[in-house]
Structures are given as C-alpha cells and as structure tokens.
Specification:
Layout: E1 2-13, E2 21-32, E3 36-40, H1 47-54, E4 62-67, E5 70-71, H2 77-87, E6 88-91, H3 103-113, H4 118-131, H5 147-159, E7 165-169, H6 177-194, E8 197-202, H7 205-208, E9 213-218, E10 221-223
Parallel strand pairs: 3-8, 3-9, 6-7, 7-8
Antiparallel strand pairs: 1-2, 1-4, 4-5, 9-10
The structure holds adenosine-5'-diphosphate (2 copies).
One adenosine-5'-diphosphate binds near residues 43, 44, 45, 48 and 49.
Length: about 220
C-alpha cells in the first residue's frame, strides 16, 4: 500500500522579479506503508518545499499528491487541514514546543484538540515519553530540557495523534554529532516500532544509510544515488 505518492510535482516561486525560481520539477516519489525513506538534499535543493507539499502545507503548481490512496490535489482547504491534523506528523529541525507547557502537556494538547479524553491523552503522552527515554522529564518545561531531550519530546508530539505518515526536516540537525546520532537512532526505533511510514530529510549520509531507502534531491529534481 502506498502511503505517500507524489506524481509530476512542480513548484516555482514568483518573486516579483523578471523570471521565476523553479524550485521543484517533475517530482515522482512514493513511500510505502511501514517504509522509512531518506530524502538526501544539499541546502537549497528544495527539500523543505517538497516536504511542505507532501504534508499539505503548501500547494504544488502541477502534479498530484496522494495520501493513503486518496488524491489530495483538489480537496477544499478545510478537508486538507483535517487530513493533515489526523494523518500526518511533522518534525522540524527546531522543536517548536510550547514554552509555557510541560513536556507532557505538549503531547496532551494536540490529542485534546483531536477529541481524545484527557485521561487517555495523558496516558498516551507518558507512554510515548518513556519510549523515547524522557519519561522522568514529563513535568519539565522545554527550556529545562537539553536539546536532545527537546527533540525527543517533539517526536512524541508528532506521534500524539497516531498519524499514518511522518515527515521530518533535518530532525536532529540542531544537535551536536554525538547527540544527533543517539537521538536519530531513537527516532528510527520509534518509527519502526509503530509501523509508521516516514520521509526523513537529512544531509548526513551516515544517518540516511540507516533508513530503508535513500532518494536524492538536487536542484529540484530527484536523481539516482
Ligand atoms: P531546502 O529546504 O532544500 O534548503 P527550500 O525548499 O527551503 O530548500 O528552498 C528551495 C529554494 O526555493 C531556495 O532557493 C529558496 O530560496 C526558495 N524559496 C523557498 N521558499 C520560498 C518562498 N516562499 N518564496 C520564494 N522563494 C522561496
Ligand atoms: P546535552 O547532553 O543534550 O547537551 P545538557 O548538558 O544541556 O544536555 O543537559 C544535561 C542534563 O541536564 C539534561 O538531562 C537536561 O535535561 C538537564 N538540564 C539542562 N538544563 C537544565 C535546566 N535549565 N533545568 C533543569 N535541567 C536541565
């Protein structure tokens, strides 16, 4: 079963200057259920744009986006937003946790917004934190956590509502190499244990090699590795 399917996706930005910047051209890619795919790309290659289109945060100029067999291309905005909230988890280079709330609450809140009862939400949040090794930090605010711990909490938040597809943009890019290595291993273990499908962008070839498959984006086109 194909969880994410991009076909002929193209995107350009018109900067109000003569000519336009063609960021993505003819992108065809798919991620199967349970598959963890590395998106390897140098800076400026269009990786963030691609992930935003795959995650329904931005529209393509041409081509189609399919999630779990459904074509998302011409859906009304409200429907796209609902699918994004329910089926897609995002992780960024920076944690983007809410600073005024504890680690636990940062994972509880998205579940409450999704209609989960508080008791069940707290139980799931605590379980997720324990699985990534930060269970003892549940009551701490993000500022009291190390960079690696903050990212681990962000992983839990991304998985809070049991998405089907995980999209990650340099998820350990802010961490020093040793921490990055460990935190990345935790992420892969978590994804594999939950059977999630994932597209994870990194410019680190060693981290990419740990995934099921690697694809490379260069100047807006996918090229063979
Ligand atoms: P990456 O994540 O691979 O570094 P991006 O997808 O962020 O690349 O950007 C690819 C190219 O598109 C860059 O040249 C960038 O400057 C340009 N770009 C990205 N977003 C916008 C935007 N909103 N408006 C204009 N140009 C943009
Ligand atoms: P890292 O190995 O990621 O660089 P740090 O040296 O920042 O970690 O932190 C080491 C430990 O100290 C971590 O467990 C972290 O949660 C804890 N810690 C760091 N800053 C604070 C703080 N301001 N309040 C409470 N605990 C902290």
């Amino acid at each position: 079963e194909v969880m994410l399917a991009l076909s002929g996706v193209a995107k350009s930005y018109n900067l109000g200057l003569p000519g336009e910047v063609q960021v993505l051209q003819g992108i065809d890619l798919s991620v199967n259920r349970g598959e963890v795919v590395a998106l390897v790309a140098p800076s400026g290659a269009g990786k963030s744009t691609l992930l935003h289109i795959a995650g329904l945060l931005d529209g393509a100029d041409a081509g189609t986006v399919g999630i779990a067999g459904h074509d998302m291309t011409d859906l009304p905005d409200a429907k796209r937003t609902a699918i994004r909230r329910q089926d897609i988890g995002f992780i960024y280079q920076f944690h983007h946790l809410l600073p005024e709330f504890s680690a636990l609450e940062n994972i509880v809140l998205p579940q409450l917004a999704n209609g989960v009862a508080r008791k069940a939400a707290v139980s799931r949040a605590q379980d997720l934190l324990e699985r990534v090794g930060v269970g003892a930090r549940a009551t701490h605010r993000p500022a009291a956590l190390s960079g690696g711990e903050q990212q681990r909490v962000a992983f839990c938040r991304a998985l809070a509502n049991e998405p089907r597809l995980l999209l990650a943009d340099e998820p350990t890019g802010n961490l020093d190499p040793a921490t990055s290595e460990q935190v990345f291993a935790t992420l892969i273990d978590l994804v594999k244990a939950t059977g999630l499908s994932a597209l994870i962008a990194t410019h680190n070839m060693e981290l990419a090699a740990r995934m099921d498959r690697q694809i490379r984006l260069e100047s807006g086109k996918l090229v063979a590795l």
